Amino acid sequence: MSEFISLVVNGILIGGVYALVGLAIVVIYKSSSVFNFAVGDFVMWGGFVMWTFLVAFDLPIWASILFAVVVMAIIGLLTNRLLISPMAGQPLLAVVLLTLGLSYLLKGVHSAAWGPTWKAFPPLLPSGKLTLGSISFSADYMWCFIIAMVAFGIFSYLFQRTRMGLAMRATAEDHQLARSTGISVKTIFSATWILAALLCLVAGVLLGSVNNLGPQLADIGLKGFPVVLFGGLESVVGCIVGGIVVGVLENLGAAYLNPLVGGGIEEVVPFVVMLLVLMFKPYGLFGLKRIERL
Amino acid sequence: MGGLRLRIGDNDMLILNSVEVVYSNVILVLRGVSLQVPEGAIVSLLGANGAGKTTTLKSISGLLGTELGDVTHGNIEFDGQRIDRSEPEDIVKLGIVQVMEGRRQFGHLSVEENLRAGAYTRHNGASLKRDLDMVYGYFPRLKALRRATSGYCSGGEQQMLVIGRALMAHPKLILLDEPSLGLAPLLVEEIFGIVKNINEEEGTSVLLVEQNAMAALGIASYGYVMENGRVVLDGSAEKLRENEDIREFYLGLSQLGKRKSYREVKHYKRRKRWLG
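^ Those are the sequences you sent over. The predicted structure of the assembly is below.
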């Protein structure tokens, strides 16, 4: 039993990071209805950009964070300005497929720049095992969760309490109406892409430091898909719930099903659950129900 | 055909000069509309469905661009500045806010968040509180509902909300599209009374599009009548209220006791076709 609880706790902890990836999808989807298929590659790039400053350039941690934030913000901004904005007025499917193309572009540039080899962060988070009664969990997972939740908190503050956040929520509801109140929808789209890129940076660094830093980080980033489809594409709260569910399921799957099928099941379980959720709740658990008053 | 044209001249804040609007490069909707809104006035734009009233408002507020519409001829001037090629958000900054038809609000935001969104163009945080109080002063009912999700408010409350949201931008001119749509007569009267108050106390000019000609001419000082994308009649509100055609077509009144003969009806039809 205590093993089960430990698995669940570890799943919850790593689920916090998946929630961040989910949030990066939701923030763009909410405002512009574009589903960003390149989110996994943003996560990978986040990890590698941070690694470049921290390890390759050997900068102190605060400077690395600063530069990584700037670089990722620029990548987010350029994506919107060069790829997404010019597609305004085109069918949504075309824009979504464009993000799929962007995903391959980012993968390609990544292997050209950093090569296919694995990199490692110096230990950023305290490692070791913590025990609480009979439950044991890794200290770095716990710090991951804490940092992820802080990032989530900062995002929620921006989204709920600031003028820019209000404009984002307004834009999410009605583009034409937002423009009629003087909100520049283009600026808001840029802001959401920057925000999403920064969330991916945090997720990439966290995932890269608990696992290792390699091209596979892009696939781990893809776990954002079941997260948002489980929680609902438009729901911020759904991200946390979805992230935790995915984290727990993959941990349990790895522990109990892997011995039966011979490994790798943790990669599959979240997507199987995603399929089941889509069959019974197509809008996810917390998907937006439109208010219709006639 | 234009009747007596009252040129007010110097204090015209908004001037439309034979504006022609085409949607999707093929559909000609406005065929040369000219009108003026003087500073501090309420001007009403009347007409049947499909006459081009809403398109006229959207050409002023710049929202045409969001619907593949284009001003192909003529020009629009506001405070001596051409605005027919400007983006909607820049036009809001100049001081024109359109209140769109159908009480469109951000349905999942609270009433107060809707109002705050209306003040987006103004960065000054300190005056926000004062402006909220100003709006709550005109619409006390909104104050009680400030935390309510606006999508669930009643039609009248939503109409008040969207007018209040427009006020939050400190506009010089509000383009008000069909505020009476789907509201009970008593509520229409209340809302038109508040619009009049706002006009008098804040000095905000209003260009009011309405099908309810009686209510609109009640608060407006001047009116234009549109048909098939053209202005076919204009004059002071009193003149329009007295006008036979207006009484017949828009106010549902005719000379007391007199039945219309078939020949006269045909005459009106002919006249309408000639105008169109």
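Chain A touches chain B through 21 residues (CB under 8 Å). The radius of gyration of chain A is 19 Å.

Shout if you want it in another format.
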